[in-house]
């Protein structure tokens, strides 16, 4: 059990995880086209190599401050499986989860959490209140940060660059 | 701006807040009848003295680990108002919010958070990772803990007593 993020490059991954990352990045780009912060989450079964949920941010579109990609993906997978615990499943998300999402991932008992870009300002796994390092936290997934980090960061940067451009 | 919970008794409150608390406790009892942990949240306007959202736990019923009362109340109020920020509204919840819900309340920019029972094991406001005390936390509501504490605690105790009874 660790919440220390490990560094991996895409070359370390197998084809399946590469596909998961590509799916998440495609979904995050879709969010950007809807003027949402481009973050997406995918929940998948490492055993069957099947994706069971894909979601991207919908906070603006849905007028819902809780509609982060991770929350939507957990809700979608739980509804599909009709169970609150996703013990046999992993999540890949393009950005380090915030404290809300990190806690939801713990409640959902997801086996592993892979994330892309680190979030110094808003993250809750390796930054901020570091949810999983707290004594009262009941369950910690295995955490692997910095997965396809550059591609995830570039997408976020291009979104915020466009935002700043529009502000002028 | 403070996250230090202040102690209030029901006698300090005006009739409106008493009604809000009664509404929340009634909703929490309803959750208990559905075999959910009896926690409920109410979002109200201190200006118009109107309740705009009432929700209680639905994690088991909805197979949704994120379906805590506070999350459901925020989603309901935001959808109603078609806005992600609930700046002019307050929340009353019968139990100290967990880190997931405390963060959601911050995202929703709720003006005040009143809560009933303290949650030493699962709370994220005055216990655990104390979301609002973290440097990276962007917005902190005014927090008042221990409001109608005894009634909220008694409801929770009776639920867990029944659970233990059923386990025998």
Tally of individual helices of chain A = 4
The number of strands of chain A is: 5
Terminal residue distance of chain A = 47 Å
Structural class of chain A: alpha/beta
Succession of helices and strands of chain A: HEEHEHEEH
What does this structure look like?
Two copies of one chain form a homodimer. With 168 residues, chain A is an alpha/beta fold. In chain A, 36% of the residues lie in helices and 17% in strands. Chain A contains four helices and five strands. Chain A has helices spanning 15-33, 69-81, 99-107, 149-167, and strands spanning 40-45, 50-56, 90-95, 112-117, 142-144. A five-stranded mixed beta sheet of chain A has the order 2-1-3-4-5. The longest helix of chain A is centred in the N-terminal third of the chain and has 19 residues, at 15-33. Chain A is globular. The termini of chain A are far apart. The relative contact order of chain A is 0.18.
């Amino acid at each position: 059990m660790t919440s220390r993020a490990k560094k991996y490059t895409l070359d370390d991954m197998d084809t399946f995880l590469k596909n998961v990352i590509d799916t998440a990045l495609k979904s995050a780009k879709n969010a950007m086209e809807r003027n949402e912060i481009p973050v997406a989450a995918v929940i998948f079964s490492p055993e069957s190599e099947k994706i069971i949920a894909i979601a991207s941010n919908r906070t603006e579109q849905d007028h819902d401050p809780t509609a982060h990609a991770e929350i939507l993906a957990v809700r979608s997978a739980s509804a599909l499986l009709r169970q609150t615990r996703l013990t046999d499943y992993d999540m890949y998300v393009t950005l380090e989860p915030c404290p809300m999402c990190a806690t939801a991932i713990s409640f959902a008992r997801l086996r592993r959490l892979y994330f892309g870009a680190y979030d110094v300002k808003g993250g809750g796994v390796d930054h901020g209140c570091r949810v999983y390092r707290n004594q009262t936290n009941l369950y910690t997934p295995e955490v692997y940060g910095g997965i396809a980090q550059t591609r995830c960061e570039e997408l976020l940067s291009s979104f915020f660059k466009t935002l700043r451009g529009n502000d002028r």
